[in-house]
Design brief:
- The chain is 45% helix and 15% strand.
- By secondary structure, it is an alpha/beta fold.
- It has 3 domains: 145 residues, NAD(P)-binding Rossmann-like Domain (Rossmann fold, 3-Layer(aba) Sandwich), CATH 3.40.50; 165 residues, no CATH class; 73 residues, Rna Polymerase Sigma Factor, Chain: A (Orthogonal Bundle).
- The strands form 2 sheets. The protein has a 7-stranded parallel beta sheet with strand order 4-3-2-1-5-6-7, sandwiched between helices.
- The longest helix has 21 residues.
- The protein binds NADPH dihydro-nicotinamide-adenine-dinucleotide phosphate and magnesium ion.
- This is 1-deoxy-D-xylulose 5-phosphate reductoisomerase.
- It holds the Pfam family DXP_redisom_C.
Amino acid sequence: MKNIAILGSTGSIGTQTLDVIRDNKQLFRAFMITAHSNAYLLIQQALEFVPAYAIICDETKYSEIKEALAHLPITVLAGYEAIKEHVTHLDIDVVLTAMVGFAGLEPTINAIKAGKDIALANKETLVVAGDMVTALAKEHNVKILPVDSEHSAIFQCLAGEQDNAIEKIILTASGGPFRGKSVAFLADVTREHALKHPNWVMGAKITIDSASLMNKGLEVIEARWLFDLRPDQIEVVVHPQSIIHSLVQFEDGSIKAQMGLPDMKLPIQYALTYPQRVKTNFKRFNFADYRSLTFEQPDMDTFRNLKLAFEAMKKGGNMPCIINAANEVAVAAFLKNEIGFLAMSDLIETCMQQIPFVKEPTLQDYLNTDKETRIFAQNLIQRMPLKA
Ligand code: NDP
Ligand code: MG
């Protein structure tokens, strides 16, 4: 029986993780669940799973949760600091990081230092500080198991292979709702358009990132650290059906791909049961439903975020941290209709040019860069004409 801490249990990945736990009660216990502010859902989850801990970031929701769970043996806590502290609890075996954005970094670092294996959905953690996080994981002998479907695919392709046999990896991208569209078209798209992903239902931030191809950019950087690759070993191919989840090319020229219907429960479960596979009743892929699987090159001139992410990866230092923070601010502003779709890339590029570069950042440098970039980006937005 593994005790799982789910950071961000009320989100898209978090709720699907609880689905996996519900289906495998003999294997897993939800030991800790956390939310940012969704007290209602956190209470429902706590009533069903009776975790040892239920933690809410938003302190104003504390008494409501405490009262609702008073009859159960659950420790209710509030505040981000409480998550950072209790994620190190002795009884936790695996921490599944499903919170969104930079907020995932510090709890993940604390969990690694406490020797917890990480099932990593929160890609921003590796984008921001992949060098530090992977070095820490090595030092503390903990596994970082990918939950992101592309990285899970690569991880599955690598089973039984030697690390140094990889020539390159190829991440597949669906292309999102605006695949094939022009810059002129993108200038007028709204948040409602961007929130409709063709193949996946996900949280709002990653859905916008998928529409702008920033999600793929973040995944490129995530892959670099997860699989210890050079930037020139990572490629992206657009595959609109999202059936091949990614590929590895080995030095003898052989290519392995991992396939299946798009369903995040599979990579979530694999990260939790690894190295075992456990039987599921998930819907199976049927060739009769797919007459063809197609591939095309990503259009990085139209979807500039992907190009910017490649540049940031090559530059290294705090540059990926800068693009991550700028992107978080840009996406939040786009979701509030404060800026247009194309302005997101302009904002990120300006931050990359203006925020001081640090070649070998410490954790404090990353925290400073994140803060500074957010303030700078927020100021830029005030000066941007709507739909710039
Ligand atoms: P959601 O927005 O659906 O959920 C985010 C979760 O994190 C919620 O539980 C939310 O709480 C909590 N949260 C949000 N902000 C904070 C914060 N500042 N501090 C603490 N907790 C916070 O996101 P997703 O589930 O879609 O994505 C989670 C992560 O997984 C992201 O990093 C994403 O890139 C990655 N991922 C997601 C995939 C997907 O299919 N959804 C696929 C691959 C990776 P509350 O509900 O209270 O707001
Ligand atoms: Mg992905």
